[in-house]
Amino acid sequence: QLASSKEQILGQIAMAEENNIGFMMMMARSLLDLGKVTSLEEIFERVRNTSSLDLQTLANEMFNTDEMSILMMHS
User: Do the Cβ atoms of 26 and 13 come closer than 8 Å?
Assistant: First the structure.
């Protein structure tokens, strides 16, 4: 399933490249987030080299329950 997800992401990136505005938006986001424009080859390589452990680590960082807050509403 990870392999097919990677292929889908690579396909979406390739399609974005064909759309000039989409490609410019992707490059602008890279510049804002990383401080540099990441080449397509580098993006493809990083996607291909991403492991399930990488994704699990990221998920644990993003959804760290110790840093989450809960909002409860009572009506």
Answer: yes
Once rounded to an integer, what is the mean pLDDT over residues 23-38? 89
| 31: containing domain | 1-47
- Is the per-residue pLDDT at 45 higher than 90? yes
DSSP symbol at 74: -
Query: Model's pTM, two decimal places?
Result: 0.69
Q: What is the pLDDT of residue 64?
A: 86
C-alpha 26/C-alpha 38 separation (Å) is 9
Q: Domains in the chain: how many in total?
A: 1
State the Cα–Cα distance between residues 4 and 10, nearest whole angstrom: 10
On whether residue 30 sits in a domain, the answer given is: yes
Specify if 27 maps to a domain.
Answer: yes
